[in-house]
Design goal:
Blueprint (H helix, E strand, L loop, with lengths): L7 E3 L6 E9 L1 H5 L8 E12 L4 E14 L6 E17 L9 E5 L4 E3 L1 H11 L7 H5 L5 H9 L13 H11 L2
Parallel strand pairs: 5-6
Antiparallel strand pairs: 1-7, 2-3, 3-4, 4-5
């Protein structure tokens, strides 16, 4: 994975308070992570950095559209995504990103790299089961759906009058009380 220099936020020269950074995410962002589940990407990410004297808070908001393939029909469709991520940045003796919500940077560090957090935010914003809206409302005309319909198990009607005589004796026990 190559590092994307625009995702380094230099905080050393920033005054205390809120600062906003905006990013337009496209296919090249996910290519740098070797992630190929999206056909096309058009997402905006807004990062609000709140710098305080001893720590920082990063609030990331993502919204946009990713083009993915339907899990049922493999037809491509645009999936709307929205996501939020809150990250607390503290300073310590050594780098530590084991906690999902707290990032520890070494003392003396002057920038924070947020590409991994943006990547996770966007990937997790996409639903696990990707279903084309046309499948849900019945408007998609696809040969795959026709084949699934054809292969669907048929319901067999059970005739309640013709029961297996071996069970009749047990059924009497249930009614004799």
């Amino acid at each position: 994975m190559k590092q994307l220099k625009e995702f380094f936020i230099p905080f050393k020269g920033l005054k205390q308070g809120k600062h906003t950074f905006e990013y337009k995410i496209g296919n090249s962002f996910f290519e740098s992570f070797d992630y190929e589940d999206f056909n096309d990407v058009n997402v905006s990410v807004e990062v609000a950095l709140n710098k305080m004297s001893t720590m920082m808070e990063l609030d990331m908001r993502a919204s946009g559209v990713v083009n993915v393939n339907c899990d049922i029909t493999n037809e491509p469709f645009d999936q709307e995504i929205n996501g939020d991520l809150h990250l607390v940045v503290k300073f310590g003796d050594e780098f530590n990103d084991e906690d999902d919500e707290i990032l520890i940077l070494p003392h003396g560090e002057h920038q924070v790299y947020i590409a991994q957090y943006v990547y996770e935010l966007l990937v997790l914003a996409v639903p696990q089961k990707r279903v084309h809206p046309g499948v849900e409302d019945g408007s998609l005309d696809s040969p795959v759906l026709d084949k699934l319909e054809e292969l669907q198990p048929k319901e067999e009607k059970i005739d309640k009058k013709n029961t297996d005589p071996r069970w009749d004796g047990l059924k009497k026990l249930l009614t004799d009380k």
